[in-house]
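Hi everyone, sorry if this is the wrong subforum. Our group has a chain we'd like a structural model of before ordering constructs, and none of us has done structure prediction before. Sequence below.
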Amino acid sequence: MLSSTQRRGLRLAWRFIRPYRWQSLGALLALVITAGITLSMGQGIRLLVDQGFMTRSPHLLNQSIGVFMVLVVALAAGTFTRFYLVSWIGERCVADIRRAVFDHLIQLHPGFYENNRASEIQSRLTTDTTLLQSVIGSSLSLFLRNALMVIGGIVLLFVTNPKLTGIVVLALPLVLAPILVFGRRVRGLSRQSQDRIADVGSYVAETLGQIKTVQAYNHQGEDRRRFALAVEQAFTTARLRIVQRAWLITLVIVLVLGAVGVMLWVGGMDVIAGRISGGELAAFVFYSLVVGGAFGTLSEVIGELQRAAGAAERIAELLQARSEVQPPVAALQALPARATGRLQLQGVSFAYPSRPTPRAIDNLSLTIEAGETVALVGPSGAGKSTLFDLLLRFYDPQQGQILIDGYDLRQLDPQDLRRHFALVSQNPALFVGSVEDNLRYGQLQASDEQVRQAARIAHAHEFIEQLPQGYQTRLGEAGLGLSGGQRQRLAIARALLVDAPILLLDEATSALDAQSEHLIQQALPTLMQGRTTLVIAHRLATVQNADRIAVVEQGRVIAVGTHRQLVSENPLYARLAALQFNPEHEARTP
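Answer:
Right subforum, don't worry. Here is the predicted structure as tokens:
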């Protein structure tokens, strides 16, 4: 029997098959017809033996062969129809499943990915769905076909010779028992096998994704050892599953064909004694082989169906994951076409679900006026980047509220909210595709001239033109092949194209060479003009001219003011300034 979670997985599969019920009915009809034709061939064999061979009549032989050939043609046509429809349904359903899972995953809040490895999710989206495709497009059809063959074959066995059928029926409990016993073991090992395969894929993605670090630290030997261990664990689990399935198939073959052997001996004695004809025995042997072969195939297919149930269960887990950040059910508010950009954080407290203590943000209050440039400075881990996550509503605060133009973020649809923000991060995300595709990432309708104008303002046009295909040059994963400064300038151009009223700059010029920083500093004023801007910076030289600077420590704003005010009034800021602007003096200070 299947567990409740596996039944849920099979219901998931049915949910995606149901829209194609007419194709499914056509496949089922073709399956029934082909099974019926296959079973009717037993009667054809009986007629061929009794009326064709035994009567020595050429006319009857011709008739028998003619009927046989008609059945062959009908069987071929039915098999073509069944195979095409079943394969089409399998491919169509898996395509729908992949789309549904991806569409669901891309809406989940980032916190979901803290506790779930992206590489394991990728394995579920590829390996598990491929297994489902195989089952829906092949194994399920085989299961239904062979189930019909077993049922129809047993009925025709009784019709042909009840005495001999009794021998076969007595063997059925002996066949079903190992299927139930070994099937339960195969089911559990199938789920474990899929998990081990996911571990292998996850390790490959993680290691190859950080190949420079791996090679820089000469870690290849240890990675080979760990990968070999993961592969061996996957192999060991698969071997145990194969052993159980092999025993299952072996027992079924021995028991079924053993019963057929006994039946042949009894039937042969009846033919010799004249109690039945040779045609009856030939038909009975045919049906016995059909039933035996169908049982053997069923034992194999059941293992595949159990693996599919495990795969469907894993996919169902992804589809059942719920985002903790949801648009409100009722009283949905909407921001105007373009927000002014006034932000208020009122008593905000927040801790990441995976790290409940200490709080990343602790009772923080801050107001940013429309069009104002505010810099956030403080030591690493103070909560500056977390503020950006809250403003973009990747997470909701556990206490307090955040307002944009007087609207509580919790009362806004996240997608409606985020169109008012443009983000330039410390390590900008670039995607596989052309330079132009990456620039248009936030504004798909931008014209070619708008793209090039944004690139010129960001001082990116010159280096883009020098690329092999200019704006059509395809970038590697994460912009591989571009320098940090080039990637940063592309990110600024992308933010310019979005033309959002609120700009978030997260260490936009950190870790860049002087030339790249100079070019980006030239681009930033145009980007910031007329926008509410929040800047995270460790290098105070880049934010001295901000309207205000907020000093953040341990999730709290401990001081707000201009650079000059904070140097004289706030010890933490004064110490940071001394370290960066006057290190010799700081070294002499006790």
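For your construct planning: The domain at 4-320 is CATH 1.20.1560.10 (ABC transporter transmembrane region fold). The radius of gyration is 35 Å.
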